Amino acid sequence: AENMYFFSELALTLNEPEERVAPTDSRLRPDQRLMESGRWDEANVEKQRLEEKQRAVRRRREAEAVEALEEGKDYEGYIPLWFERKVDAVTGELICVYKGGYWEAKDKQDWSVCPDIF
Protein backbone atom coordinates (compact mmCIF):
# COMPACT_ATOMS: atom_id res chain seq x y z
CA ALA A 1 0.00 0.00 0.00
CA GLU A 2 2.89 2.37 0.73
CA ASN A 3 3.95 2.20 -2.94
CA MET A 4 0.37 2.71 -4.11
CA TYR A 5 -0.49 6.00 -2.39
CA PHE A 6 -1.63 4.17 0.76
CA PHE A 7 -4.74 2.81 -0.96
CA SER A 8 -6.12 -0.42 0.44
CA GLU A 9 -5.90 -3.60 -1.62
CA LEU A 10 -9.64 -3.31 -2.32
CA ALA A 11 -9.31 0.28 -3.52
CA LEU A 12 -6.49 -0.71 -5.86
CA THR A 13 -8.59 -3.40 -7.52
CA LEU A 14 -11.81 -1.39 -8.02
CA ASN A 15 -10.60 0.05 -11.31
CA GLU A 16 -9.30 -3.20 -12.77
CA PRO A 17 -10.70 -3.96 -16.23
CA GLU A 18 -13.34 -6.68 -16.40
CA GLU A 19 -14.43 -8.62 -19.45
CA ARG A 20 -17.98 -8.64 -20.85
CA VAL A 21 -19.06 -5.27 -19.40
CA ALA A 22 -21.05 -2.59 -21.18
CA PRO A 23 -19.02 -0.41 -23.55
CA THR A 24 -20.07 2.53 -21.37
CA ASP A 25 -18.38 1.10 -18.27
CA SER A 26 -16.09 3.79 -16.85
CA ARG A 27 -13.25 1.28 -16.51
CA LEU A 28 -13.06 1.32 -20.31
CA ARG A 29 -12.34 5.06 -20.52
CA PRO A 30 -9.41 5.33 -22.90
CA ASP A 31 -7.93 8.33 -21.09
CA GLN A 32 -7.98 6.43 -17.82
CA ARG A 33 -6.30 3.40 -19.36
CA LEU A 34 -3.57 5.65 -20.82
CA MET A 35 -3.06 7.38 -17.49
CA GLU A 36 -2.74 4.08 -15.67
CA SER A 37 -0.10 3.07 -18.20
CA GLY A 38 1.86 6.20 -17.36
CA ARG A 39 1.21 7.81 -20.76
CA TRP A 40 0.26 11.17 -19.26
CA ASP A 41 0.45 13.39 -22.35
CA GLU A 42 -1.66 11.01 -24.43
CA ALA A 43 -4.12 10.62 -21.55
CA ASN A 44 -4.55 14.38 -21.33
CA VAL A 45 -5.21 14.71 -25.08
CA GLU A 46 -7.70 11.84 -24.90
CA LYS A 47 -9.43 13.36 -21.86
CA GLN A 48 -9.86 16.64 -23.72
CA ARG A 49 -11.29 14.77 -26.73
CA LEU A 50 -13.80 12.94 -24.52
CA GLU A 51 -14.85 16.13 -22.75
CA GLU A 52 -15.42 17.91 -26.06
CA LYS A 53 -17.44 14.94 -27.30
CA GLN A 54 -19.61 15.21 -24.17
CA ARG A 55 -20.04 18.96 -24.68
CA ALA A 56 -21.11 18.40 -28.29
CA VAL A 57 -23.76 15.89 -27.21
CA ARG A 58 -25.01 18.32 -24.57
CA ARG A 59 -25.19 21.15 -27.15
CA ARG A 60 -27.11 18.88 -29.55
CA ARG A 61 -29.62 17.94 -26.85
CA GLU A 62 -30.06 21.58 -25.87
CA ALA A 63 -30.67 22.52 -29.52
CA GLU A 64 -33.21 19.70 -29.87
CA ALA A 65 -35.00 20.94 -26.74
CA VAL A 66 -35.17 24.50 -28.09
CA GLU A 67 -36.42 23.25 -31.45
CA ALA A 68 -39.12 21.13 -29.80
CA LEU A 69 -40.19 24.08 -27.65
CA GLU A 70 -40.41 26.35 -30.70
CA GLU A 71 -42.55 23.75 -32.47
CA GLY A 72 -44.74 23.25 -29.40
CA LYS A 73 -43.65 19.65 -28.98
CA ASP A 74 -42.64 17.79 -25.84
CA TYR A 75 -38.98 16.95 -25.45
CA GLU A 76 -38.01 14.03 -23.22
CA GLY A 77 -34.30 14.66 -23.20
CA TYR A 78 -31.84 12.06 -22.03
CA ILE A 79 -33.33 8.86 -20.63
CA PRO A 80 -30.92 6.67 -18.64
CA LEU A 81 -30.72 3.06 -19.81
CA TRP A 82 -30.62 1.19 -16.53
CA PHE A 83 -32.06 3.60 -13.97
CA GLU A 84 -35.10 5.81 -13.48
CA ARG A 85 -35.66 8.77 -11.21
CA LYS A 86 -38.20 8.36 -8.44
CA VAL A 87 -39.09 10.14 -5.25
CA ASP A 88 -38.01 8.22 -2.17
CA ALA A 89 -41.14 7.46 -0.13
CA VAL A 90 -39.31 7.96 3.16
CA THR A 91 -37.07 10.97 2.53
CA GLY A 92 -38.94 12.67 -0.31
CA GLU A 93 -35.63 13.02 -2.15
CA LEU A 94 -35.20 12.31 -5.84
CA ILE A 95 -33.27 9.03 -6.23
CA CYS A 96 -32.18 6.78 -9.09
CA VAL A 97 -33.61 3.27 -8.98
CA TYR A 98 -32.41 0.35 -11.10
CA LYS A 99 -35.11 -0.44 -13.67
CA GLY A 100 -33.62 -3.59 -15.13
CA GLY A 101 -32.01 -4.62 -18.38
CA TYR A 102 -28.30 -4.48 -17.62
CA TRP A 103 -27.83 -8.05 -16.42
CA GLU A 104 -29.92 -9.39 -19.30
CA ALA A 105 -27.83 -7.42 -21.80
CA LYS A 106 -24.66 -8.65 -20.10
CA ASP A 107 -25.81 -12.29 -20.28
CA LYS A 108 -26.59 -11.91 -23.99
CA GLN A 109 -23.63 -9.59 -24.63
CA ASP A 110 -26.05 -7.36 -26.52
CA TRP A 111 -24.95 -3.80 -25.92
CA SER A 112 -26.74 -2.35 -28.95
CA VAL A 113 -28.73 0.08 -26.77
CA CYS A 114 -25.58 1.67 -25.36
CA PRO A 115 -24.53 5.05 -26.72
CA ASP A 116 -21.02 5.64 -28.04
CA ILE A 117 -19.57 7.70 -25.21
CA PHE A 118 -15.87 7.07 -25.72
Automatic annotation (TrEMBL):
Q: Name one GO cellular component term.
A: cytosol
Q: Which GO terms describe its molecular function?
A: cholesterol binding
Instruction: Check the record and name the Pfam families matching this protein.
Output: Oxysterol_BP
Output the superkingdom of the source species.
Eukaryota
Q: What InterPro entries does the database record attribute to this sequence?
A: OSBP_sf, Oxysterol-bd
Q: What PANTHER family does the record tag this protein with?
A: OXYSTEROL-BINDING PROTEIN 2, OXYSTEROL-BINDING PROTEIN-RELATED
Protein name per the record: OSBP1 protein
Annotated source species: Struthidea cinerea
**Mind giving the lineage of the organism this protein is from?**
Eukaryota, Metazoa, Chordata, Craniata, Vertebrata
